[in-house]
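About this split. The held-out portion is used to measure sequence recovery: a designer receives only the C-alpha coordinates and must propose an amino acid at every position. Recovery is the fraction of positions where the proposal matches the reference. Here is one held-out target exactly as it appears in the evaluation file.
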Protein backbone atom coordinates (compact mmCIF):
# COMPACT_ATOMS: atom_id res chain seq x y z
CA UNK A 1 0.00 0.00 0.00
CA UNK A 2 1.31 3.50 -0.82
CA UNK A 3 1.87 5.27 2.50
CA UNK A 4 4.20 7.90 3.89
CA UNK A 5 6.74 5.08 4.23
CA UNK A 6 6.38 4.27 0.56
CA UNK A 7 4.61 1.51 -1.31
CA UNK A 8 4.06 -1.84 0.38
CA UNK A 9 1.21 -2.97 -1.83
CA UNK A 10 2.68 -6.25 -3.04
CA UNK A 11 4.84 -8.88 -1.30
CA UNK A 12 8.00 -7.13 -2.57
CA UNK A 13 7.14 -4.35 -0.09
CA UNK A 14 9.89 -2.28 -1.68
CA UNK A 15 8.86 1.00 -0.04
CA UNK A 16 9.23 3.10 -3.19
CA UNK A 17 7.85 6.63 -3.08
CA UNK A 18 5.74 6.23 -6.20
CA UNK A 19 5.10 9.96 -6.42
CA UNK A 20 8.79 10.42 -7.15
CA UNK A 21 10.16 7.10 -8.40
CA UNK A 22 9.27 3.68 -9.71
CA UNK A 23 9.22 0.58 -7.53
CA UNK A 24 10.69 -2.87 -8.13
CA UNK A 25 7.61 -3.51 -10.30
CA UNK A 26 8.57 -0.61 -12.57
CA UNK A 27 5.41 1.39 -11.79
CA UNK A 28 4.99 4.87 -10.40
CA UNK A 29 1.69 6.50 -9.49
CA UNK A 30 0.40 6.73 -13.06
CA UNK A 31 -1.53 3.79 -14.48
CA UNK A 32 -0.03 2.63 -17.77
CA UNK A 33 -1.76 0.28 -20.21
CA UNK A 34 -0.28 -1.53 -23.24
CA UNK A 35 -3.43 -2.74 -24.98
CA UNK A 36 -7.18 -3.07 -24.67
CA UNK A 37 -8.87 -5.78 -26.72
CA UNK A 38 -11.41 -8.59 -26.75
CA UNK A 39 -9.26 -11.60 -25.91
CA UNK A 40 -10.16 -15.10 -27.15
CA UNK A 41 -7.35 -17.18 -25.66
CA UNK A 42 -8.39 -17.43 -22.04
CA UNK A 43 -10.21 -20.52 -20.75
CA UNK A 44 -13.51 -21.11 -22.63
CA UNK A 45 -15.65 -20.10 -19.62
CA UNK A 46 -13.83 -16.73 -19.60
CA UNK A 47 -13.41 -15.98 -23.32
CA UNK A 48 -16.67 -17.51 -24.53
CA UNK A 49 -17.76 -16.60 -28.04
CA UNK A 50 -17.54 -12.81 -27.71
CA UNK A 51 -14.15 -12.55 -26.03
CA UNK A 52 -12.93 -11.39 -22.65
CA UNK A 53 -12.44 -7.63 -22.36
CA UNK A 54 -8.72 -7.61 -21.64
CA UNK A 55 -6.87 -4.60 -20.30
CA UNK A 56 -3.12 -5.33 -20.35
CA UNK A 57 -1.35 -3.24 -17.73
CA UNK A 58 2.32 -2.30 -17.92
CA UNK A 59 4.94 -3.36 -15.35
CA UNK A 60 4.79 -6.41 -13.07
CA UNK A 61 5.49 -7.29 -9.47
CA UNK A 62 6.92 -10.75 -10.28
CA UNK A 63 8.97 -10.27 -13.49
CA UNK A 64 9.81 -13.90 -14.29
CA UNK A 65 12.88 -14.31 -16.50
CA UNK A 66 10.89 -16.42 -18.99
CA UNK A 67 8.07 -13.88 -19.35
CA UNK A 68 6.42 -13.85 -22.80
CA UNK A 69 5.21 -10.26 -22.33
CA UNK A 70 8.49 -8.63 -21.38
CA UNK A 71 7.89 -5.54 -23.43
CA UNK A 72 5.14 -4.59 -21.05
CA UNK A 73 6.08 -6.44 -17.84
CA UNK A 74 9.41 -4.58 -17.87
CA UNK A 75 7.49 -1.30 -18.13
CA UNK A 76 9.25 -0.38 -21.40
CA UNK A 77 5.92 0.13 -23.11
CA UNK A 78 2.68 1.51 -21.77
CA UNK A 79 0.38 4.45 -22.39
CA UNK A 80 -0.34 6.59 -19.31
CA UNK A 81 -4.05 6.89 -18.48
CA UNK A 82 -6.04 8.76 -15.86
CA UNK A 83 -8.54 7.03 -13.61
CA UNK A 84 -11.33 8.75 -15.58
CA UNK A 85 -9.99 7.32 -18.82
CA UNK A 86 -9.77 3.87 -17.23
CA UNK A 87 -13.46 4.13 -16.32
CA UNK A 88 -14.20 5.01 -19.96
CA UNK A 89 -12.18 2.01 -21.14
CA UNK A 90 -14.29 -0.29 -18.95
CA UNK A 91 -17.47 1.23 -20.42
CA UNK A 92 -16.13 0.92 -23.96
CA UNK A 93 -15.36 -2.75 -23.40
CA UNK A 94 -18.86 -3.26 -22.04
CA UNK A 95 -20.14 -1.63 -25.23
CA UNK A 96 -18.24 -4.23 -27.27
CA UNK A 97 -20.42 -6.90 -25.69
CA UNK A 98 -17.50 -8.84 -24.22
CA UNK A 99 -18.24 -11.39 -21.51
CA UNK A 100 -16.24 -9.70 -18.76
CA UNK A 101 -13.66 -7.03 -17.90
CA UNK A 102 -10.29 -8.79 -17.60
CA UNK A 103 -7.56 -6.93 -15.69
CA UNK A 104 -4.29 -8.52 -16.81
CA UNK A 105 -1.20 -8.00 -14.62
CA UNK A 106 -2.82 -5.18 -12.66
CA UNK A 107 -1.34 -5.91 -9.21
CA UNK A 108 0.91 -2.87 -9.08
CA UNK A 109 -2.06 -0.57 -9.78
CA UNK A 110 -4.62 -2.30 -7.52
CA UNK A 111 -4.92 0.69 -5.17
CA UNK A 112 -5.48 3.02 -8.15
CA UNK A 113 -7.92 0.70 -9.95
CA UNK A 114 -10.10 -0.08 -6.91
CA UNK A 115 -11.73 3.40 -6.73
CA UNK A 116 -12.47 3.21 -10.46
CA UNK A 117 -14.13 -0.18 -10.08
CA UNK A 118 -16.12 1.08 -7.10
CA UNK A 119 -17.37 4.00 -9.21
CA UNK A 120 -18.32 2.07 -12.37
CA UNK A 121 -19.45 -1.24 -10.99
CA UNK A 122 -23.12 -0.37 -10.84
CA UNK A 123 -23.05 0.51 -14.56
CA UNK A 124 -21.08 -2.55 -15.67
CA UNK A 125 -23.19 -5.67 -15.38
CA UNK A 126 -20.50 -8.15 -16.39
CA UNK A 127 -17.95 -9.88 -14.14
CA UNK A 128 -14.63 -8.27 -13.30
CA UNK A 129 -11.74 -10.72 -13.73
CA UNK A 130 -8.39 -10.25 -12.00
CA UNK A 131 -5.72 -12.08 -14.01
CA UNK A 132 -2.60 -12.30 -11.88
CA UNK A 133 0.63 -14.07 -10.95
CA UNK A 134 -0.41 -15.56 -7.60
CA UNK A 135 2.12 -13.26 -5.91
CA UNK A 136 -0.47 -11.08 -4.18
CA UNK A 137 -0.41 -9.79 -0.62
CA UNK A 138 -3.37 -10.00 1.73
CA UNK A 139 -3.44 -6.19 1.81
CA UNK A 140 -3.81 -6.03 -1.96
CA UNK A 141 -6.59 -8.61 -1.99
CA UNK A 142 -8.38 -6.80 0.84
CA UNK A 143 -8.44 -3.69 -1.38
CA UNK A 144 -10.03 -5.71 -4.19
CA UNK A 145 -12.53 -7.55 -1.98
CA UNK A 146 -16.08 -7.06 -3.30
CA UNK A 147 -14.81 -5.50 -6.54
CA UNK A 148 -13.55 -8.62 -8.32
CA UNK A 149 -15.80 -11.54 -9.31
CA UNK A 150 -13.33 -13.96 -10.85
CA UNK A 151 -9.68 -14.50 -10.00
CA UNK A 152 -7.28 -16.10 -12.49
CA UNK A 153 -4.14 -16.59 -10.41
CA UNK A 154 -1.13 -18.57 -11.51
CA UNK A 155 0.36 -21.01 -9.07
CA UNK A 156 3.82 -21.13 -10.63
CA UNK A 157 6.06 -22.72 -8.04
CA UNK A 158 5.84 -25.16 -5.18
CA UNK A 159 9.62 -25.10 -4.97
CA UNK A 160 11.18 -22.11 -3.31
CA UNK A 161 14.52 -22.55 -5.10
CA UNK A 162 12.87 -22.52 -8.52
CA UNK A 163 10.90 -19.43 -7.52
CA UNK A 164 14.13 -17.75 -6.44
CA UNK A 165 15.98 -18.57 -9.66
CA UNK A 166 13.28 -17.57 -12.13
CA UNK A 167 11.33 -14.87 -10.28
CA UNK A 168 13.63 -13.74 -7.45
CA UNK A 169 10.80 -14.66 -5.10
CA UNK A 170 11.76 -17.52 -2.78
CA UNK A 171 8.66 -16.79 -0.70
CA UNK A 172 6.38 -17.41 -3.70
CA UNK A 173 4.98 -20.87 -2.71
CA UNK A 174 3.63 -19.70 0.66
CA UNK A 175 2.51 -16.31 -0.65
CA UNK A 176 0.61 -17.90 -3.53
CA UNK A 177 -1.16 -20.47 -1.38
CA UNK A 178 -2.25 -17.75 1.06
CA UNK A 179 -3.33 -15.51 -1.83
CA UNK A 180 -5.44 -18.24 -3.43
CA UNK A 181 -7.04 -18.91 -0.04
CA UNK A 182 -7.89 -15.22 0.31
CA UNK A 183 -9.33 -15.17 -3.23
CA UNK A 184 -11.53 -18.16 -2.42
CA UNK A 185 -12.75 -16.43 0.73
CA UNK A 186 -13.65 -13.40 -1.36
CA UNK A 187 -15.49 -14.93 -4.33
CA UNK A 188 -16.41 -18.46 -3.25
CA UNK A 189 -16.83 -21.60 -5.29
CA UNK A 190 -17.21 -21.43 -9.09
CA UNK A 191 -20.59 -20.27 -10.34
CA UNK A 192 -21.68 -20.05 -13.95
CA UNK A 193 -24.34 -18.05 -15.78
CA UNK A 194 -26.95 -19.57 -18.07
CA UNK A 195 -24.47 -19.49 -20.98
CA UNK A 196 -21.86 -21.46 -19.04
CA UNK A 197 -19.66 -18.42 -18.46
CA UNK A 198 -17.88 -18.12 -15.13
CA UNK A 199 -19.61 -15.43 -13.07
CA UNK A 200 -17.80 -16.05 -9.76
CA UNK A 201 -14.86 -18.17 -8.74
CA UNK A 202 -11.17 -18.90 -9.01
CA UNK A 203 -9.27 -20.59 -11.84
CA UNK A 204 -5.78 -21.62 -10.73
CA UNK A 205 -3.38 -21.83 -13.64
CA UNK A 206 -0.11 -23.67 -13.81
CA UNK A 207 2.43 -23.50 -16.64
CA UNK A 208 4.70 -26.53 -16.80
CA UNK A 209 8.34 -25.38 -17.01
CA UNK A 210 10.94 -27.43 -18.93
CA UNK A 211 13.12 -29.43 -16.56
CA UNK A 212 10.92 -28.70 -13.55
CA UNK A 213 8.44 -31.56 -13.50
CA UNK A 214 8.85 -32.00 -9.75
CA UNK A 215 7.95 -28.37 -9.18
CA UNK A 216 4.73 -28.99 -11.11
CA UNK A 217 3.94 -32.19 -9.22
CA UNK A 218 4.46 -30.25 -5.99
CA UNK A 219 2.04 -27.58 -7.18
CA UNK A 220 -0.65 -30.22 -7.60
CA UNK A 221 0.05 -31.75 -4.19
CA UNK A 222 0.04 -28.33 -2.49
CA UNK A 223 -3.23 -27.28 -4.08
CA UNK A 224 -4.95 -30.55 -3.26
CA UNK A 225 -3.82 -30.55 0.36
CA UNK A 226 -4.70 -26.87 0.94
CA UNK A 227 -8.10 -26.65 -0.73
CA UNK A 228 -11.18 -28.70 -1.47
CA UNK A 229 -11.26 -29.85 -5.10
CA UNK A 230 -14.68 -28.25 -5.58
CA UNK A 231 -13.42 -24.84 -4.49
CA UNK A 232 -11.60 -23.95 -7.70
CA UNK A 233 -11.06 -24.79 -11.36
CA UNK A 234 -7.62 -25.98 -12.42
CA UNK A 235 -5.99 -25.01 -15.71
CA UNK A 236 -2.82 -26.75 -16.85
CA UNK A 237 -0.83 -24.94 -19.53
CA UNK A 238 1.79 -26.33 -21.86
CA UNK A 239 2.81 -23.34 -23.96
CA UNK A 240 6.18 -22.48 -22.43
CA UNK A 241 8.22 -20.82 -25.17
CA UNK A 242 11.89 -19.76 -24.74
CA UNK A 243 12.17 -15.98 -24.86
CA UNK A 244 15.92 -15.76 -25.48
CA UNK A 245 16.83 -14.81 -21.91
CA UNK A 246 19.87 -16.89 -20.98
CA UNK A 247 18.57 -17.31 -17.41
CA UNK A 248 15.38 -19.00 -18.66
CA UNK A 249 14.94 -22.61 -19.87
CA UNK A 250 15.94 -22.73 -23.53
CA UNK A 251 13.63 -25.49 -24.76
CA UNK A 252 9.96 -26.32 -24.77
CA UNK A 253 8.50 -28.95 -22.50
CA UNK A 254 8.45 -32.55 -23.64
CA UNK A 255 5.42 -34.80 -24.04
CA UNK A 256 6.67 -36.83 -21.08
CA UNK A 257 6.87 -33.77 -18.84
CA UNK A 258 3.41 -32.58 -19.75
CA UNK A 259 1.72 -35.95 -19.61
CA UNK A 260 3.20 -36.92 -16.25
CA UNK A 261 1.96 -33.65 -14.74
CA UNK A 262 -1.45 -33.93 -16.41
CA UNK A 263 -1.81 -37.54 -15.29
CA UNK A 264 -0.99 -36.60 -11.71
CA UNK A 265 -3.55 -33.77 -11.77
CA UNK A 266 -6.20 -36.14 -13.11
CA UNK A 267 -5.31 -38.86 -10.59
CA UNK A 268 -5.71 -36.32 -7.77
CA UNK A 269 -9.17 -35.43 -9.08
CA UNK A 270 -8.41 -31.90 -10.27
CA UNK A 271 -11.05 -30.65 -12.68
CA UNK A 272 -10.79 -27.97 -15.28
CA UNK A 273 -8.76 -27.35 -18.42
CA UNK A 274 -5.84 -29.28 -19.81
CA UNK A 275 -4.31 -27.39 -22.71
CA UNK A 276 -3.66 -29.51 -25.78
CA UNK A 277 0.06 -30.21 -25.98
CA UNK A 278 -0.01 -29.34 -29.71
CA UNK A 279 -1.29 -25.86 -28.91
CA UNK A 280 1.99 -24.92 -27.22
CA UNK A 281 2.68 -21.88 -29.36
CA UNK A 282 3.98 -18.33 -28.87
CA UNK A 283 0.96 -17.00 -30.80
CA UNK A 284 -0.86 -16.71 -27.45
CA UNK A 285 1.01 -13.45 -26.96
CA UNK A 286 -0.80 -10.50 -28.54
CA UNK A 287 1.08 -7.62 -30.14
CA UNK A 288 1.27 -4.78 -27.65
CA UNK A 289 0.73 -1.58 -29.58
CA UNK A 290 -1.42 0.60 -27.33
CA UNK A 291 -4.56 -0.15 -29.32
CA UNK A 292 -7.74 0.75 -27.48
CA UNK A 293 -5.99 2.70 -24.72
CA UNK A 294 -6.48 6.27 -25.91
CA UNK A 295 -9.83 7.75 -26.81
CA UNK A 296 -10.41 8.01 -30.55
S1 LIG B 1 3.62 -2.64 -6.04
FE1 LIG B 1 5.60 -2.02 -6.92
S2 LIG B 1 6.20 -0.20 -5.77
FE2 LIG B 1 4.59 -1.28 -4.55
S3 LIG B 1 5.69 -2.64 -3.14
FE3 LIG B 1 5.23 -3.82 -4.99
S4 LIG B 1 7.08 -3.60 -6.27
FE4 LIG B 1 7.16 -1.98 -4.73
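Reference sequence for scoring:
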Amino acid sequence: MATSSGCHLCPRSCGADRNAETGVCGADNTIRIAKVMPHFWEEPCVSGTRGSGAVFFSCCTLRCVYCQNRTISSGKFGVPVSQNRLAEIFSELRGMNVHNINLVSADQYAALIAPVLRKVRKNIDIPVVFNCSGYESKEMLDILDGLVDVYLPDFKYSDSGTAAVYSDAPDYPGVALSAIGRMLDSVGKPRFDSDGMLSKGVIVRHLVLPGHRKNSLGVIESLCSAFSLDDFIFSLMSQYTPNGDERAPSRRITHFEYESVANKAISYGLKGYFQQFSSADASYTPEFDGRGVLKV
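Annotator remark: Residues 172-187 form the longest helix (16 residues).
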